[in-house]
Amino acid sequence: MMLSAADAAREIAEGRLTSEELVQACLERIRALEPKVQAWTFLDQEHALTQARAADEHKRSGKPIGPLHGVPVGVKDIFDTADMPTENGTVLHQGRTPRADAAAVRSLRASGAVILGKTVTTECAYFAPGKTRNPHNPEHTPGGSSSGSAAAVAAGMVPLALGSQTAGSTIRPASFCGVYGFKPTHGLIPRSGVLQLSRTLDHVGLFARTIEDIALLAEQLAGWDEKDPDTRPRARIPFQALAAEEPPIPPMLALIKTPHWERTDGDTREAFGELVEALGDRVEEVELFPSALEAWDWQKTIMAAEMAANLEREWRAGKDRLSPQLRELIERGREVRAVDYQRAVRAIAPAVESLDELFMERYDAILTPTALGTAPRGLASTGDPVFCTPWTLLGMPALSVPLMQGANRLPLGAQLVGRRGFDARLMRTARWLVAKLA
Amino acid sequence: MMLSAADAAREIAEGRLTSEELVQACLERIRALEPKVQAWTFLDQEHALTQARAADEHKRSGKPIGPLHGVPVGVKDIFDTADMPTENGTVLHQGRTPRADAAAVRSLRASGAVILGKTVTTECAYFAPGKTRNPHNPEHTPGGSSSGSAAAVAAGMVPLALGSQTAGSTIRPASFCGVYGFKPTHGLIPRSGVLQLSRTLDHVGLFARTIEDIALLAEQLAGWDEKDPDTRPRARIPFQALAAEEPPIPPMLALIKTPHWERTDGDTREAFGELVEALGDRVEEVELFPSALEAWDWQKTIMAAEMAANLEREWRAGKDRLSPQLRELIERGREVRAVDYQRAVRAIAPAVESLDELFMERYDAILTPTALGTAPRGLASTGDPVFCTPWTLLGMPALSVPLMQGANRLPLGAQLVGRRGFDARLMRTARWLVAKLA
Questions:
Q1: Catalytic annotation on B169?
Q2: For residue range B138-157, what is the model confidence (pLDDT) as tens digits?
Q3: Which of A180, B80, B285, B365 could be B98's S-S partner, Cβ–Cβ 3.0 to 4.6 Å?
Q4: Cβ neighbours of A342 in B, within 8 Å
Q5: Does the pLDDT at position A224 exceed 80?
């Protein structure tokens, strides 16, 4: 079932496909592959089909339909759903049944989507892995924390899925699983009803198999929500139309290797070498300004301090039932001093301003790795988010583009990072990049 | 020179008074009383007169004039002024000459005001006193930290002055000096260009001798400033017109004694007893809900942590030249943990919501003491802000109304606290209260 969401929505709207047929096909694919991939933590096939039939009934009645009418979407199990449990990947929340949908889930339903089921998250969207395996090779991690969403989209179980990113939880699994992963500008998509780890760093993340689908999904989700104080009232952004435009002149990319480049594996460096060669004069290597080198530390300080505050109740109620990784993080976060925390938070705005100059002067997007390499072997770790954390910290839009492959035949994404607030432009640049390399 | 700002502006606008005459009269008053009161830290008489003559010249030329045209205003020496030094009450900033005006000073100039001079602040607007004395009795403190602004307005040296409040730095000195002191809703008046102690707690404060003048001044200062992230774009609020309206029905006040009532002196309790008696059925005693009792601790935690971050440079550069009080605060603040700090900040919004119910159900304003009593004898301390800190924390508008007197003949204000965002309503209620007791 590799039909894109945009095509599926079109087929359904034009009466050539029913939502029930589409959902049935997704469920068949899941029945075939789930034993190997383990992407879902909750999936009630009858409930999914009931939603699909209701969508078909609605359409038959002649009522207006939304842009995702009848299209199934997977939702990471840290988004509250009123009709399915939401367990946040921790035994401490086992059997938790929220009364209301998260804002993003509400938007999906308003667009006509079928909420197919809940996808596997690592424990509290941090590092301790869930059961999911990489669909390209089950001996390898799918990445995390949005493990199930990335794997489900990659395996063709569903065309779209929601994830999140506080460090590298969307970009990294998208790269490892070979799909598009999009982390929008901070505050673009409301996070209310999503397990809060860090107001400063949390982002909703999107997974799809085409850029068009990323744009379609972003268009449904962006907006103001009174319960997310980092969102702002604004006009609806026509992401699909903007992403589909031709750039007025060929974009210019800034290759930023970062100080962590030396830790990337040989495959990554070779793949990037080929990529840069293919791009010719459309890419230039740029050095990060010196103070940006502290971004990694700032992100760690903020993540530890805010997660310690947000998960204090869980830590108090059952620290012995948390993974050692999460317990260690919270305990480290409890020791962070308020002055250091404030210094890190205050460093964000000036760093964003400095990076803005890059975009104003010359570049359309930053080109940088998504991860140290392809998905590491083994399931004990979801990989290192080191190539994602600075852009998460700075709230800049980032897209993992499935362009490359390692010698092990596992996928490897290239990360494009855009100017804060220019998400549609980033999608347009990504579309240009893919076409240029085709 | 007890002319109100509104009357002075009217006289000037109608040509019966010149700004030069008014400023000359203020300067005479200052020459007579400053040796005793010591309200000013910078005052260049020639520069003040030059501004006044320019205002008169501007008016003679027939150009449109602003609502404060030609009216002198005193500015606490933590507001940056491009034409006068700004030393923030610390030797560490001696000789500091900012290049730009603070946003509030810019607004004053845009309204036509004459910036008469800079008034004495305690050290960095914290507790270590400046040289100012109480104009009603120089053996007593004027309160702080806006000591010079309160004293200058009380002594008739200037009809209006700017101060600030992070704990009780406007309400307390206004009460001790017998003038109106107004601390607006958090975010109503931009603070950019003012020494930042605490983004969460800092407010611009206003001093005047009539409510009409408080409204006139607030109307000039309220607004959005892109450099103060807590301000919001909004329509201009007609404070003067709203404050002058008759309440549709007689207001109802909620007397909140707080757990600190027992520490007030006999004078305060007696004066409040008479006040409550005079108000009859228009006042009812109300208990604070239990969780609000933590407000004092939350305010202390936030003030220490944020001041430690904001004054880190001063502490590093010259901690031996800070007062013991300030050094102790910063060192305490440096030890505050980020989890405790975040818990305190997050407590604000739900507490504001709970207090909102009070206003929606029955009451127009809270009535509560401004301080433990009249201005304490001696100049070593500016008094205790304990009756101000919770309302500062919650960002609610507060007004010190000079209604009472102690047995020692020193003034004693009553504090009215309004619903967050309803500043003009609070002024209207205060006007009603004053008229009722007249």
A1: yes
A2: 999 999 999 999 999 999 99
A3: B80
A4: 305-306, 309, 341
A5: yes
Cα end-to-end distance, chain B, whole Å: 23
Task: Please check whether residue A158 lies inside any domain of the structure.
Answer: yes
Burial class (CB in 10 A: 0-12, 13-18, 19+), B344: buried
Domain membership flag for residue A269: no
Looking at chain A from residue 342 to 371, which residues have their Cβ under 8 Å from any Cβ of chain B? 342-343, 346
Q: How far, in Å, are B251, B261, B276, B292 from residue B284 at the CA level?
A: 12, 16, 9, 19
Is residue A133 situated within a structural domain? yes
Residues in a beta bridge with B398? B183, B417
Torsion of the alpha carbons at A111, A431, A222 and A10, rounded to the nearest 10: -10
Q: Are A395 and A352 in contact (CB under 8 A)?
A: yes
How many residues appear in chain A?
A: 438
Domain holding A64, by residue range, is: 5-240
Q: Are A431 and A246 in contact (CB under 8 A)?
A: no
pLDDT of residue A417: 98
Write the secondary structure of chain B as one string of H (helix), E (strand) and C (coil): CCCCHHHHHHHHHCCCCCHHHHHHHHHHHHHHHHHHHCCEEECCHHHHHHHHHHHHHHHHCCCCCCCCCCCEEEEECCECCCCCCCCCCCHHHCCCCCCCCCHHHHHHHHCCCEEEEEECCCHHHCCCCCCCCECCECCECCCCCCHHHHHHHHCCCCCEEEEEECCCCCHHHHHHHCCEEEECCCCCCCCCCECCCCCCCCEEEEEECCHHHHHHHHHHHCCCCCCCCCCCCCCCCCHHHHHHCCCCCCCCEEECCCCCHHHCCHHHHHHHHHHHHHHHHHEEECCCCHHHHHHHHHHHHHHHHHHHHHCHHHHHHHHHHCCHHHHHHHHHHHHCEHHHHHHHHHHHHHHHHHHHHHHHHCCCEEEEECCCCCCCEECCCCCCCCCCHHHHHCCCCEEEEEEEECCCCCEEEEEEECCCCCHHHHHHHHHHHHHHHC
Neighbours of B393 (CB within 10 A): 29
Q: Is the dihedral of CA B250, B255, B256, B260 positive or negative?
A: positive
Per the structure, the count of domains in chain B is 1
Query: Cα–Cα distance between B22 and B7 in angstroms, integer?
Result: 11
Q: What is the mean pLDDT of chain A?
A: 97
Confidence of residue A245 (pLDDT cuts 50, 70, 90): very high
Q: Which helix (H) or strand (E) covers residue A365, if one does?
A: strand A365-369
Which whole number is the average pLDDT over B9-28?
98
Task: Write out pLDDT tens, residues A135-174.
Answer: 999 999 999 999 999 999 999 999 999 999 999 999 999 9
Q: How many CB pairs under 8 A join A and B?
A: 55
Q: Which 3 state secondary structure label does DSSP give A371?
A: coil
Q: Are A223 and A190 in contact (CB under 8 A)?
A: yes
Work out the minimum CA distance from B87 to partner chain A, whole angstroms: 24
Report d(CA B290, CA B274) in Å as an integer: 28
Of B306, B309, B342, the CB nearest to A309: B342
**Residue A336 touches partner B, C-beta closer than 8 Å:** yes
Mean pLDDT for B55-84 is 98
Nearest CA in chain B to A346: B309
pLDDT of B225 strictly over 90: yes
Q: Domain for residue A202, yes or no?
A: yes
Structure ipTM? 0.90
Percent of chain B with pLDDT over 70: 100
What CATH number is given to the structural domain containing A97?
Answer: 3.90.1300.10
Summarised one tens digit per residue, pLDDT across range B227-280 is 999 999 888 999 999 999 999 999 999 999 999 999 999 999 999 999 999 999
The answer to whether A56 touches A19, Cβ cutoff 8 Å, is yes
- Within 10 angstroms of residue B291's Cβ, the number of other Cβ atoms is 11
